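yo

u said u wanted the structure for the complex thing, so here. seqs first:
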Amino acid sequence: MSVRTFESGPSPISPNQSMISDFDFGDTALADDIQQQLGQTEHAIVRELSCGEPALEEPMMHLTTSGGKRFRPLLALLSSQFGPRPGCSAVIDAAAAVELVHMASLYHDDVMDEATMRRGVESVNLRWNNSVAILAGDYMLVRAWSVLTRSQLDPVLKVSALTTLSESATALVTGQLRETVQSREGIIEPEQYLQTVTEKTASLLSIAAWLGAAYSGADETVAKTLSAIGEAIGIVFQISDDIIDVAAPSDRSGKSRCTDLREGVATLPVIYALRDGAATTRLRELVSRPITDDNEVEEAVQLIQSSSAFAESRAMMERYAALAHSHLATLQPGVARQAIGNLIDFTLARSN
Ligand code: FPP
Ligand code: MG
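structre next:
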């Protein structure tokens, strides 16, 4: 069954790109609990960003209140169902912290991509400028650690959480840099792509799941299993994002269409299309540099669409979704396990 949107919950924001309104939790009581906890997470995020300095607050609130899927908080909250304190205040802090790191990375990513649109509104780099977007992202990043530092937790667990979040943010930066360098250097293999997306995307989903479970007091084995599920979901998520970049119109994605393609980023559909004989020569010519001409962008899209790229990318997503399901099968059966199973399938179906 579907559940209410954020608008009816106690949330200070009205996300216009939220996935929650479409997501089937499979259980009404669980859906209501998570909905309420997502509202608390929004309050925690807004609290952290309320610095009283309009020059910073306005650009930070611009995207925060424009929506977003809140995928990472959702995974943290669902994972917390496997411990004795689901949705406790420390779990809410963890959900807020991972979303803050994620938003910080998007503010920086939009500068790097020269993006014009995010979450269905003007990107911060366009509406303000690159410096404001970078500094707003910096502020968000620092607040993520601040939330976790103030959490009411056992000190040993707190140090472990802070260390793990540091490692995850380090992986994000490394993955993003790897993507930038690889795109500049030219053709890459699917294995290199997988390493990059494991770092730049899956690492944060992995820690979202681990933090949610650990902060609610789940066993370490269970937390590690959820972390592995988060990582596999993260890879499925990024591949679907890369398909959406090429295949979906802006009004569906809420982002500028074909940003990766225009910037010459080696996403999985492009990598596979370049290995498919029919598309190779002309596509290689087009993607060997940033594409500025709209006709050339459309030509590249056509070449990718007429190749085996989407089918092969989907097959890769299915492999990681199956991996996530196989980890999930080892956890305690119940409504939370069912909901995470639905989340895996939901992520897989995003780019259909
Ligand atoms: C979005 O991917 C971007 C990321 C997943 C990571 C970006 C990381 C950085 C900019 C490094 C800085 C990191 C921190 C922690 C501040 P995408 O470009 O494929 O997706 P999009 O279509 O949403 O832009
Ligand atoms: Mg981007």
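Residues 1-17 have pLDDT under 50 and may be disordered. Residues 188 and 271 are 7 Å apart (CA to CA).
cya
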